[in-house]
Task: structure prediction
Amino acid sequence: MSKLDPRLNAYRPDLADSALQGCVEAERFVAGQDYVVAAAKAPLHRAPSSEAALDTEALRGEAVRVFETRPDGWCWAQLAADHYVGWLERTALTEPKKPLTHKVTALRTFAFSEPDIKSPPLAGLPLGAAVTVTGEAEDKNARYALIDPQGAVVMQHLSSVGDAAEDWTGIAEMFLGAPYLWGGKTSLGLDCSGLIQIALEMCGIDTPRDTDMQEAAIGVALPLKDGLPPLLRGDFVFWPGHVGIMQDLETLLHANAHHMATASEPLEVTMKRFEKQGLRPTCVRRVRARIATPPHDGL
Result:
């Protein structure tokens, strides 16, 4: 049997997704149970512990398939959108109920307890979080979307789930100054590939989570025969384990550990810093059209 990527396929020696039966070996195969993320965000860890490495974050409204729930409340699960597999806490999930109708388009917005900006907020929802709007309300300050199961969000921070932005670089620029966090995907902290993933997904482009996956899947590769080709706004430059997005012909935007933030700097400066580590760009990719979800063997 060929080895499947365990980041994207739910299998362990003792347990595996039933969709992988015949492709992997496991003591037991299960179909899993579907949930959605109810928390503002749900950290997905490499092991069933909050102290384990953070691999990514699932945002409110994301669909999740759970294959195992331990007595301590940790779930071994797979995210439906990018297929990432890991451990998250059961308290962050709820059973699917009403269809999602809207997504957050602000960098962060509050879900107030009442349709009143002076009411205590229930949660801070990140860019890309999805909610179910059940009604509307208005006061002298704002118009609100009433969301299921509770809360009110100002209307100007939402759009319909089917709407898509056109400028992924502009979405990425919203995160300028956000702290660097390995595995993060929100303005509270994010990493280089998390920045690229959320920016493209807000434009309706399904994108894998990690840099090696993105390098293989995003758009089309440009030749690197004689160094970097002429670059355009929106092009993606890859190094081993890192990716950034061009703001213009000369400026790179990237979440990085050097600045410990999402920063904008001349590409030449970034390249010289990586060259001191013996690293050179491995690929430049350009999105000319929206890409389909990468092929997958399981969920």
